[in-house]
Amino acid sequence: MSTENNWKKYLPFENKKLNIAAIVFCAAISAHNAYNYFNPEIKNDAILDAYFLHSHIKKEEFEELEKYILKHVPAEDFSAIRRNLKPTTILMEESKDKAYHEGAVMEHACPVEIRKSLEPLERRLPDIIGVGFAKCGTGTLQFLDCHPSVTMKTLEPKFFNNMISQDIIRGRPEQYEHLLKMYKSSLPAVARDEILIEKSPEYSGKSAAFTAEAMKIVAPNTKIIAIACDPIPRVFSQFKMKDRRTEIKKENGDSEMELKRCRACLKGGLDEEIKVFTDEVKSKLENQVDGKTVSIGFDEYVHAITPFIEQFGEENVLLLDGESLISNPNEEWGRLLEFIGLEKDSLQFYIDEEKGFPCLSSPIKYCLNGAKGTSRKINVREEYPEETALWRELFSPRIKEMITFLKICNEVDKECCQKLKDGRFSWAYEYACD
Ligand SMILES: Nc1ncnc2c1ncn2[C@@H]1O[C@H](COP(=O)(O)OS(=O)(=O)O)[C@@H](OP(=O)(O)O)[C@H]1O
After folding, report:
1. What are the residue boundaries of the Sulfotransferase domain, all occurrences included (predicted)?
2. How far is CA 89 from the centre of its chain?
């Protein structure tokens, strides 16, 4: 058989003209696909469809979002951001914690991927770690993920727990190396020239000293962020979260036994929890030794941040005011952005009337999920005046200590109180000056 007849069997038609038309058609399709591949500014419909399949954003909404975002990013980053722009992939629907974006855990926190880097993505250790403090607004750090130079995941890795930290400190790499790999893979993939951030408020808990030491060994160049806030609403926020979780578990049909075993659930109702807590506060106040009380938690900002300052140096640790983040977001955020090496106005906030909290206005309009910002709608001091008066008495000495530690004043005197009244950490006035 001749070679001509050999390849002819692969042609779809007998007719020569039809075959030429088919070859031209296929070549045109391939050229179109290759063009889209090498010119990602024009995204292939099929690729975009695949994104929308795993996303919470509809295609029509995305087009509007895209216009808004591109209007709010620096001109020099426009082209790269446009290339990368796509809805964030959902990893898990209906997560157990409603604090995630619309009940879903996403690859990273911002609902849209706003990234200016064109470098390949890799798994690595974080550049910034948020170590606390729970219920002080650490969740707002996820706004950073909407910054074109930052990536952050909502899910808390909680890697540096007591056991792992001790293994690291004792130099037992065989114990923790595979966990370190898991840690990296639990964080979103990022480019070399991006800032990767994770937050786990547990890091400033009881094992903070071990955690800080281990963190320094594993990631010596990391910068540390912590947010301190008014401890009274902080306590209430904690109880309201337990209340919410208990309700969710009940709705899901969990048994009494399961509810008892659940550490993040209320054992009785909210009032009972407050009573038990207040009784404990009373007992701490009654059992002072040399005029000093033992902490019940919620007020140990100095104690918890000190190990991180010792390990990483004062210049690499930033303690933000959680109340200023709410009342004066652009200024407090400016401080945070500068600390991590970004333009202080590269994220912009407005106070959303309905939410009653700051939401991002640039480069994207974005508020935290409905699960965040509920307890603050109740004035706990008005609801529980006697109880909160006792809490204040117990918290007072450690908040006073925080004022001098932060060098707001050398000592808490009249002049200091005057200074405290309207500046950052003004909530400390009630504990130190009233
Ligand atoms: N911008 C914005 N939007 C919503 N909520 C805000 C915001 N800024 C601060 N807060 C307050 O943050 C409280 C939750 O704190 P955390 O995110 O640290 O909680 S957690 O430890 O991660 O569970 C949360 O407490 P709750 O009101 O109990 O939900 C809020 O009071």
Report:
1. 126-361
2. 17
